[in-house]
Structure formats: C-alpha cells, structure tokens
Amino acid sequence: MLDTITHLKVPVEQKDRSVCLGPDGSVAHVARVMRMISGRWKLPILFRLSAEPFMRTLQLKRDMPGISQKMLTQHLRELEQDGLIERRDFGEQPPRVEYRLTGAGRALMPVLMAAREFSRGN
C-alpha cells in the first residue's frame, strides 16, 4: 500500500509532509496556479498578451476565432481577479479599454513556455 502513495516519494528535506501536502504546501500552490489558468481561452489570452504590450478587447476577440464576447469578458475578469492581467479603462466615449500582463502574469510566462517545451519533447 505504501508503494502506491506517491506523495511519500516527493523529495523534501524535512520529514514533515505538510511542506508538500499542507494548506500552504507545494501541492496547494501548484493547484492554485492550475485553477488560475484553467479555462479554454485563458492560455490563448495570456499568450496573446505576452506578445503585445497591451491589447484592446476587440483585438483579442479577432485573434481568437470562436470565442464569444461573453466568454472573453468572463475570462478577462477572472484573469484580472487573479492578478495576472491588468485592465485600463480610459473613461472615454465610445469606451476604450486595454489589457496587459501584470508582473505576476509576466512571471508566469516562463513557466508556461517550459510547459510548452515539455509537451514538445514528449
């Protein structure tokens, strides 16, 4: 039975497994990031914003054929709430809003690029 418990095989310097499994452990942090980027359109949004310093909603919609305005708005709001993107409203008429990656969003991009390279290699 102990052979099938994989979390016991995770290398940690301390004997305390809460480092890995506790509420502030490695698993919790990785799961949080996975929740932040889960959703059909979140990764395309992040990759598009990493390629441009800022983008307007209509530009994002044009670059992602098949996304509805509702889903784009929902994913943009979630990414903003998670601190990965920043919304800038110019308060003009007609409305002008731009999005860009935050520092946290830029810090996440090397991780996503590493995941891409991992996928290409397997």
UniProtKB/TrEMBL annotation:
SUPFAM superfamilies registered for this protein in UniProt: Winged helix' DNA-binding domain
DNA-binding keyword on record: yes
Residue stretches making up the HTH hxlR-type domain: 20-122
Any one GO molecular-function label of the UniProt entry: DNA binding
InterPro entries xrefs: ArsR-like_HTH, HTH_HxlR, WH-like_DNA-bd_sf, WH_DNA-bd_sf
Keywords, alphabetical: DNA-binding, Transcription, Transcription regulation
Protein name in the entry: DNA-binding HxlR family transcriptional regulator
